[in-house]
Amino acid sequence: MELLSGADMIARFLQDEGVEYIYGYPGGAALHIYDALFRQDKVKHILVRHEQAATHAADGYARASGKPGVVLVTSGPGATNAVTGIATAYMDSIPMVVLCGQVMSHLIGEDAFQETDIVGVTRPIVKHSFSIRHPSEIPEVLKKAFYLASTGRPGPVVVDIPKDMTAPTERYEYIYPKKVKLRSYNPVTRGHTGQIKKAVELMLKAKRPVFYTGGGVVTGKASEGLTDLVKKLGFPITTTLMGIGAYPQSDQQSLGWLGMHGSFESNMAMHHADLIIAIGARFDDRVTNNTSKFCPTAKIIHVDVDPSSISKTVRADVPIVGPADSVISEMISLVQGQPITHPEALKEWWEKIDGWRAERHGKLYEPSKPGEALKSQEVVEALCRITRGEAYVTTDVGQHQMFAAQYYKFDKPNRLITSGGLGTMGFGFPAAMGIKQNFPDDDVVCVTGEGSFQMMMQELSTCKQYGVGVKILNLNNASLGMVRQWQDLNYKSRHAHSYMESLPDFHLLIEAYGFTAITVTTKEELEPALERAFADKHELVFLDVKVDPFEHVYPMQVPLGSMRDMLLSKTERT
Amino acid sequence: MRHIISILLENEPGALSRVVGLFSQRNFNIETLNVAPTEDPSLSRLTVTTVGDDRVIEQITKHLNKLIDVVKLVDLTEGNHIERELMLVKVKALGAARDEVKRTVDIFRAQIVDVTPSLYTVQITGDAAKLDAFLQAMAPVGILEVARTGVSGIARGDKVLSL
C-alpha cells in the first residue's frame, strides 16, 4: 500500500493517466501541487504568462492530439483568468481538465485572500465540476474528471482543490483507478438501428442530397468513415467551420464550408436540397441564418451524440442519437451494394451545383495589382502553397479567421484550429503553442491580426522559454477588420473604435524576445518571406504582412434571410 | 402548457444549483420547485413545474438529462398522475369572521393548526387550483402570510421512478 499526500496523488495520477503536458501558472493555493510536480519529471509543466493562454494552449493540444488538455491554475484571479479559455473549450466541445487551487476549506465563504467560487463562476460553461472534500477522494475524482471530459460529447471539467487537500503532511492510500462508473452518465455508444435504416432509405431515394457535417465528426474521429460514406454515395458535402477537413476539401465532392461566410455553392446547395444529412453539427445560427427560411424543401436527418443538440433550433425528421463513427459505419454497411434510386436526378443536381461553382469561379476577390496593398486572401493562398496545405493552422477571430478558412485548403481533420463557437480573440497564438509542442516536426502557423495578437502576445515569452517554433502570420490591416466591415455595412462606415491607432513596431517587439520578424508590404516580398519563415521548423518567425484595410469578407449571408441570401461583393448580391 | 417534471438527483453539494442554473441559463421557466432527499439518502427528488410548448419541454428534459447529477427524470404530465401542494396560511380571525373562516376551512377540508386571539394558521393540501381557490375565498377576510411548498407529484398506477 502506497501512502501519498494529496499533492503527490495529483502528480502521480497525471503520470498514470498518461498526461504529457500540463499548462499552468503557480500561486499560493496551488503551491503544494507545484512542489509535487517539481519532484517528478514525467509530466512536463509549461509555464505560460497568463492563465487564459494556459487554457488555449491545452485546448490547441487537445484538438490536435485528440487527448484531453490539462490546466493547472491557482485560486481567485488564476482561476478567473482561465474562464474565457474554459468557455471556448465548452462551446467547441473540447476535452479539457482544469485543476484550480482553492483557499483552505475552513476559509471558504469568508472572502479569504484570492478566494473565488470558481465552481459557481464556471457552472454554465463546464460539462461538469468537482470540489475535493477529502484528500482520499483525489484519485477517483480526477479519473471521473478525465472520463467525463473525453467521452460522449467532450467538454471542459473543473476540479476545485482547497489547499489543505494537498497538504504534504496528510497521507492517504493511492491506487490508480483504472475505470470509473457514474450511475447517472452513460453516453450512447451506437445509434438506433431502425432510425439509421430509415435515414439510409431516405439517402438512397434522395434527388438533391447534401451532407452537412460538423465538429462532431472531427472530435468523434469519424473522418475516414465519413469520407468512405460520401464517396460511396457520390453526394456533395459541405462542412461547418468546425468540421473543416473531415472530408478532403480538394476533392470534387467537397463544396467547402457553409454559413455566414461559407462558399456560394454550399449555401445554394443547402437551400435547394431535398435531403440534408447532418452529422455532428448543431444547426448554429452562423450556419442556418434565419431558421424559419432554412432549407425550405429539405428533409433533415440529424446524427449527434448529444440528444439536446437535436431539434434544438431546426426540427429533425430523422433524429439519430449516437456517436458519429459508429452511426457512419452502420450507414456504410447498409449502403454497401445498394443502388441509389434516382441516379439521373443526382446527375442533374451535380450539374446545378457545378453551375453555381462556375458562377463564382475567379470572382471571389480581386487580387492586388502592382503598387496596391496586398489582399489577405492572396496571403493565405500563398501560405497554403508554401506549406503544401499540410500545416496546422490556428486562427484568432475576425476577418483573418474567415480568410484562413476560405483560402487555405484543408484535406485533413484537426488542421484548422479555431474558436468557432465562442469566437475568442487571443485564442490562436497560445493554441498554436500547444500544438507545436505536441507536433514539433510539423508546421504550425497562427494566422492572426494585429488586434487579436495583441490580446495574447505575452506568450512570446513562453515560446522563448521552451523554444516553441510556431509561425505567426499577422494580417495587419491596422483595424479590427470584421468590426469595421459590419460598421461599413450597418453603420454608414462610422468606424467606432475599430481602428488601431498606436500599433507597436512588431519588428522591434519580436526582436526584443530574440525572434525573427519579417515585414511584408508587396506581393514580390510575400513568397520569399514565407519560404524563409518556414525554412526552419524550430524557429519562431513573425510575419507582419501589411494588408488592404478596406477588404470585406464575402460571401456574407444577409441577416434574417435564408441560406441563399448572400452579399457576394461590395456591389453584388444574390 | 404546464408540465410537472420529477427528477432524481445526486444528493451532492452544488447539484441543485446546476439544475436551477440551467433554467436561467437556457431561458426556461420555473414556476415552482420542490426538493428533498428520498428514502435513499444519496438521492434527492426534485419536482419542478414549468410552462412551455412541446419544443421547449423537449429541450428542458434533454438538457436536464445531460446534467451529470441528474440520474433519472420523468415528465409526470405525460400520463395520469397525482399532484399535491401544501400551504400554510395565516388569516385574520376576528369577530364574526372567526366562524366564517372556520366554516371555509372545513369546506376545503383544510385544518387549523395554530390559533391566536386574532388569527388562525391554516394548513391545506391539494393541487394548485384548490390552493388558489382557498386563497381567493380567504381574501375578503384578510390574508396575513402564505407559505407554499410548490408542487410535488407522483405517477398513478404501477409506474415507479427509481434507479
Automatic annotation (TrEMBL), chain A:
Superkingdom of source: Bacteria
Residue ranges occupied by any Thiamine pyrophosphate enzyme TPP-binding domain in the UniProt entry: 396-545
CDD domains, per database record: TPP_AHAS, TPP_PYR_POX_like
Comment on bound cofactor: Binds 1 Mg(2+) ion per subunit. Binds 1 thiamine pyrophosphate per subunit.
The protein's required cofactors: Mg(2+); thiamine diphosphate
Thiamine pyrophosphate enzyme central domain residues: 196-330
GO BP terms in the entry: isoleucine biosynthetic process; L-valine biosynthetic process
Domain Thiamine pyrophosphate enzyme N-terminal TPP-binding residue range list: 5-119
Pathway(s) the chain acts in: Amino-acid biosynthesis; L-isoleucine biosynthesis; L-isoleucine from 2-oxobutanoate: step 1/4; Amino-acid biosynthesis; L-valine biosynthesis; L-valine from pyruvate: step 1/4
InterPro entries in alphabetical order: Acetolactate_synth_lsu (IPR012846), AHAS_TPP (IPR039368), DHS-like_NAD/FAD-binding_dom (IPR029035), THDP-binding (IPR029061), Thiamin_PyroP_enz_cen_dom (IPR012000), Thiamin_PyroP_enz_TPP-bd_dom (IPR012001), TPP_enz (IPR045229), TPP_enzyme_TPP-bd (IPR011766)
One Pfam match: TPP_enzyme_C
Any one GO molecular function term: acetolactate synthase activity
E.C. designation(s): 2.2.1.6
Substrates-to-products reaction catalysed: 2 pyruvate + H(+) = (2S)-2-acetolactate + CO2
Protein keywords: Amino-acid biosynthesis, Branched-chain amino acid biosynthesis, FAD, Flavoprotein, Magnesium, Metal-binding, Thiamine pyrophosphate, Transferase
GO cellular component terms listed in the entry, alphabetical order: acetolactate synthase complex
NCBIfam families in UniProt: acolac_lg, PRK06466.1
Family that this chain belongs to: Belongs to the TPP enzyme family.
Descriptive protein name: Acetolactate synthase
Lineage: Bacteria, Pseudomonadati, Pseudomonadota, Gammaproteobacteria, Oceanospirillales
TrEMBL record, chain B:
GO MF annotations in UniProt: acetolactate synthase activity; acetolactate synthase regulator activity
Transmembrane segments: none
Pfam family, one: ALS_ss_C
Catalytic activity: 2 pyruvate + H(+) = (2S)-2-acetolactate + CO2
Record pathway: Amino-acid biosynthesis; L-isoleucine biosynthesis; L-isoleucine from 2-oxobutanoate: step 1/4; Amino-acid biosynthesis; L-valine biosynthesis; L-valine from pyruvate: step 1/4
Keyword hit for Amino-acid biosynthesis: yes
UniProt keywords, alphabetically: Amino-acid biosynthesis, Branched-chain amino acid biosynthesis, Transferase
Subunit structure: Dimer of large and small chains.
This protein's name: Acetolactate synthase small subunit
Organism of origin: Vreelandella songnenensis
